[in-house]
Amino acid sequence: MYTQCEAIECRSIVPLQDTPSVKSTFNANLAIKKPYTAIASAVSRGNTTKGNMVVYHYSQEIPVPSYLLAIVAGEIEYNSTGKRTGVYAEPAMIKNASYELAEMEDFLDTIETVITPYVWGNYSVVIMPPSFPFGGMENPYLTFVSPSIIIGDRSSANVVAHEICHSWFGNQLTGRNWSHFWLNEGFTVYSERLITKILHGEDNFTSQARIGVDNLRDVVNSFMKDGKDEYTKLFPDAKREGPEDIMSNVAYEKGFLFLRYLEKVIGTENFYGFLRVYVASYSYKAIEVWDMKRVFEGYVMKLPRESLQADPKELLEKVDWNKWLFNSGMPDKEHTIYNNDAIKEAIELADYYLNHDDSPTDNNYKKFTLDLRIIFMRRLVNGLDKLSHDKIKRIDNDLSLIHISEPTRRTPISYAVFCLKKKKKKKKK
After folding, report:
1. Mind giving me the DSSP string for 305-361?
2. 134, 80 Cβ separation under 8 angstroms
3. Count of Cβ atoms closer than 10 Å to residue 293 Cβ
């Protein structure tokens, strides 16, 4: 059993003001039969036993918005993965989950060195049942993640890096309403990819950013096609729409691109300094984008000219906040270019299969990271008009994709087959 309160479902559990602008503390006493365990998104205060019932006591002393109240219960075990980190999972999954998420302490240490100290004490992840509808949910002390990230090669651990970064952006300081959702997600994506850059290098950072841009373009094109231009704005009008309607990759990826732009304007180290000042200024508060803008501009104006290599006022005048926040569609092309030699190789391999009726003389697909495989597969799927069944069969023979056991390598090409079959059925009609 588990709860899912984001965006406005907490009202179905507790009578309260179900809005991120209101933060509160809470206590929870969860009674459950042995041998099951009940956990809340708060600090454990022990448990008491009454016959075959156990009452677990929890206290959340840091004010949080209602959507971060969470409970999970079931046959769950815990395993520590570091000084402050650990995994909850069903007994059959605990070993694999602990291996998959062994880097959590490193993620936490890495982002702490850039931003500010982690204020929540311990950090735990719960491996949810397959019915859990999201990749992850950043409940304090108790992140929920999909079991689909347990692959065996740690290639999807960045999902947890993302949820860890919510400990600062979203949990510690929170967008005041759902129009400001990007303050939670854009900063979190930026920080997640910063962890990737520090721990796994610039190339991996670039690959993840490229996938993000491609995903953003797909979402924007879909919304624009449906006449939902409002949904493509970084600052949509949440008064007119339901929160779930406006929650999309726009907040994540357009927000990330805006922050990358601000980083380039003032320089990387200066931007890291801004992140620290921003978090310190609004910890435990619900804020608006104008609060963030005020801190950014105040911070930049105090920077020495030599660190900016320009006049602070002139730099700030370059930033078109209205354009970034209120324009629909994609950002200007100059802000969306992420490329490197590895990405080019993945695209060239896909293009070869799309444009030729034979196999390439050599390829490095087996050496591709998960992100490069996604880029390769996306290129194939986008070229479905050229992707015949014979070509799919050739790709499978060359790269052994469909019949292998690794789902991360099998699923995309299977999806390509599905899309191709669907397309051909439409033609017959």
Report:
1. HHHHTS-HHHHHHH--HHHHHH--SPPPGGGS----HHHHHHHHHHHHHHH-SS--S
2. no
3. 14
What b/e string do you get for 17-55 counting C-beta neighbours within 10 Å, with b at 16 or more?
ebbbeebeebebebebeeeebbbbbbbeeebeeeeeebe
Token pair belonging to 29: 């006493």
pLDDT digits (tens, 9 = 90+) for 260-297: 999 999 999 999 999 999 999 999 999 999 999 999 99
User: Out of 6, 163, 253, 345, which one is annotated catalytic?
Assistant: 163
pTM over 0.90: yes
Which two structure tokens, joined as six digits, stand for 162?
A: 């993302």
Are 383 and 353 contacting, i.e. CB atoms less than 8 angstroms apart?
Answer: no
Give me the catalytic one of 58, 252, 338, 365: 252
Query: What is the spatial distance between Cα 207 and Cα 210, in angstroms, rounded to a whole number?
Result: 5
Low-confidence ranges of the chain (pLDDT < 70): 402-429
d(CA 175, CA 201): 30
Annotated catalytic residue 252: yes
CB atoms within 10 A of CB 314: 9
- Residue 105 designated active-site: no
